Amino acid sequence: MDQSAVCAGCHRNITDRFLLRVTGGLWHEECVRCAACGDALTSSCFLRDSKLYCKRDYYDQEPHTLQAAAHTISEQFSAK
């Protein structure tokens, strides 16, 4: 893994041993949280306006106009 990986959430360098790949970006584990309620997102998330949401909050915002866009969160090993 590239040593200069930058978190898509906080925009800081990722130096952790593990990182998460979400919606094509790399994230610190602690940064993968719902933008509305702050709950940790551990297996899936929903994306709107470059923000991550849990399923409940994603649909609570505009339930009549949204289509499901679930993304899988995958953990990757970062070689140091």
TrEMBL record:
SUPFAM superfamilies hit by this protein: Glucocorticoid receptor-like (DNA-binding domain) (SSF57716)
SMART domains the record matches: LIM
A cellular component term, taken from the record's GO annotations: nucleus
Location of the LIM zinc-binding domain: 5-64
InterPro entries according to UniProt: LIM_Homeobox_TF (IPR050453), Znf_LIM (IPR001781)
GO MF annotations, alphabetized: DNA-binding transcription factor activity, RNA polymerase II-specific; metal ion binding; RNA polymerase II transcription regulatory region sequence-specific DNA binding
Entry protein name: LIM homeobox transcription factor 1-beta
Species annotation: Liparis tanakae (Tanaka's snailfish)
